[in-house]
Design brief:
The complex is a heterodimer of chains A (95) and B (487). By secondary structure, chain A is mainly alpha-helical. Chain A contains three helices and two strands. Chain A has a domain at 5-43: Histone, subunit A. Chain A has helices at residues 5-14, 21-38, 74-77; strands at 83-84, 87-88. In chain A, helix 1 crosses helix 2. Chain B contains 15 helices and eleven strands. Classes of the chains: A mainly alpha (95), B alpha/beta (487). At the A-B interface, helix 1 and helix 2 of A face helix 9, helix 10, helix 11 and helix 12 of B.
């Protein structure tokens, strides 16, 4: 199955990546090449094989339900690209 | 200075600090001098923190003077891959998008290094977001192989491998998602360990593929590697995937040799197209293990040929999700645009490099409607088959022995044009991550150009002790770990 330029534009939009035309062209060729090589998986019979999402053998480990104090306030804002007082500043999203 | 302190093993340096024969400040000054001398040729570091290191060293010296136990890694200079958060010290993931990011907190492994008395000299280069096999995907610098400056150090923890090989630090932390501790260890001729998934906390480690990522030590020999693992392993309330199993003394378990152990040799790991010297060195190492008393037998891991596709579908799918957080709002680069959507897109376009974009695209595609079952779900099913292969082989064998890569360190620029060729560098390492197993890499030879050849020992889940013990027995019987790069 060949990857088209349209596929790449659609996926780039999903991934919030704005691609230059040269990037689009290269990624179309790359993804096509890579996915064609990966198509070998389809030859393998996996009927009734359960998927592995995680290899752990222990259940979910939960902490005690006690409040902790992760970095907040000035510490959390220290890396902000743009801020206004105690807030992250973003472009206006409400008309 | 009468002796080169930077040449000491980690354990020897720590023992001397404990006995007050040498101060941590002296060790740290020696390491910083070595960094200054080696860096122009090697380029392992993205950030050197001389002031912070000397202050930490002085604090250790005060504790020793006060009669306190300075910890397992007492006062010894180490390096940390720049994908692991260090409070107050820039952590970039070798990406433009985090070029000026200063973490508000330490990763758990960073905190454990500090608690064990280690002195963090600086942050080590890697492939951007740990995505790569040569460190050439770093957006912030080039790292060269200390054995040959025209060759790559391996990746993604290339700075960690190079800094340890060049004697700039006594040990380093790397991360391994598909071979990223082991490949640099092999290419740079040092020891590297990828622990069992869940053995070491991932809290504060910038995520690439969360079901595969694991932090591991690189050091100059097996004993030092065991010591660092002991310092960083164990459960962490901040990472629910960090196992509650108790951490044994890995250094205490090194003795005992290999007599009576059964070692499997997977036939699928000796493939056509391998560099003949690599195959010869690994087979010679297997013969050495047999001579030392191990029983070697052939085993099969029949789904090996599917591992590259399986890994690159699962890892990129997880990466596409993990890297969604880089949106230019709370930290990192922002390319401001009139609307929020355009800001996201422009920020990510400017901040991510070519390979990161390629993997985000591949992963997003594999997860997208209509393709999920054919790619992502299929890969997860094949992951189960790959895991079962190992379960079968390791039910009979205490460990498996394999090459680390089909070749020794390749040339800078040699594989960057074709991503698939680069992905094939990981062919012998990625299955271990898919199965969540521990694997140790150490030197077992040298090729015609004088480049190190690595040996991989794969163990049962949470049985780091056995691969360390086999590696230690091999090291005691051979001289490869004593070789050091020129310069």
């Amino acid at each position: 199955m060949a990857i088209t330029r349209e596929d790449v534009r659609r996926v780039a939009a999903l991934a919030r990546l704005c691609l230059e035309p040269a990037d689009e062209e290269r990624l179309t060729a790359d993804l096509d090449h890579i996915l064609e090589a990966f198509a070998r998986l389809r030859a393998l019979d996996t009927t009734d094989v359960a998927p592995t999402a995680h290899v752990e053998d222990f259940g979910a480990l939960l902490r005690d339900d006690e409040a902790t104090n992760p970095p907040a306030g000035e510490e959390a804002l220290a890396n902000a690209p743009a801020r206004s007082g105690r807030h992250f500043r973003v472009p206006k999203i409400i008309e | 200075m009468t002796e080169a302190l930077h040449e000491l093993s980690l354990r020897d340096a720590a023992a001397r600090v404990r006995r007050r024969e040498v101060s941590s400040v002296d060790l740290t000054r020696a390491a910083l001098a070595r960094v200054a001398a080696a860096e122009p040729a090697v380029g392992a570091f993205l950030t050197v923190d001389a002031d912070g290191a000397l202050a930490a060293a002085a604090a250790i010296d005060r504790r020793v003077a006060a009669g306190e136990d300075p910890g397992l890694l007492a006062g010894v200079p180490v390096g940390v891959k720049d994908i692991i958060c260090t409070a107050g010290l820039r952590t970039t993931a070798a990406s433009r998008i985090l070029e000026r990011f200063v973490p508000a907190y330490d990763a758990t492994v960073t905190a454990r290094l500090r608690a064990a008395g280690a002195v963090i000299v600086g942050k080590l280069n890697c492939d951007e977001f740990a995505m790569g096999s040569s460190t050439e995907n770093s957006a912030l610098g080039t790292t060269r192989n200390p054995w040959d400056g025209k060759r790559v150090p391996g990746g993604s923890s290339g700075g960690s491998g190079a800094a340890v090989a060049a004697r700039e630090v006594h040990a380093a932390l790397g991360t391994d998602t598909g071979g990223s501790v082991r490949l640099p260890a092999a290419f740079c001729g040092v020891v590297g360990l990828k622990p069992t998934y869940g053995r070491v906390s991932r809290y504060g480690v910038i995520a690439y593929a969360s079901s595969l990522d694991q932090v591991g030590p690189l050091a100059r020999d097996v004993t030092d590697t065991a010591l660092v693992l002991e310092a960083i392993a164990g459960h962490d309330p901040a990472d629910s995937t960090a196992s509650p199993r108790p951490v044994p003394s890995y250094t205490a378990a090194l003795q005992g040799g290999v007599r009576g152990l059964r070692v499997g040799l997977p036939r699928e790991y000796f493939v056509e197209g391998m560099q003949p010297e690599v195959e010869a060195a690994v087979r010679a190492a297997v013969a050495d293990l047999e001579r030392l008393g191990a029983a070697v037998e052939p085993v099969s891991l029949p789904h090996t040929e599917y591992a590259i596709a399986t890994y690159y579908l699962i890892a990129t799918a997880e990466a596409s999700s993990n890297l969604a957080r880089y949106d230019g709002i709370r930290y990192g680069l922002r390319e401001a645009r009139p609307s929020l959507g355009e800001t996201y897109e422009a920020t990510r376009a400017a901040g991510f490099g070519t390979e990161v974009k390629r993997r985000i695209m591949l992963g997003t595609y594999a997860l997208s409607a209509g393709y999920y079952d054919a790619y992502y779900l299929k890969a997860q099913q094949v992951r189960t088959l790959i895991r079962r292969d190992f379960e079968t082989a390791l039910a009979r064998c205490d460990a498996l022995v394999t090459p680390v890569a089909p070749t020794t360190a390749f040339g800078l620029g040699e594989k960057v044009a074709d991503p698939l060729t680069m992905y094939l560098s990981d062919i012998f390492t990625i299955s271990v991550n898919l199965a969540g197993l521990p694997a140790l890499v150490l030197s077992c030879g040298v090729d015609g150009a004088g480049l190190p050849i690595g040996l991989q020992l794969i163990g049962r889940p949470f049985d780091e002790a056995t691969v360390l013990r086999i590696g230690h027995a091999y090291e005691q019987a051979t001289e490869w770990h004593r070789r050091r790069p020129p310069g």
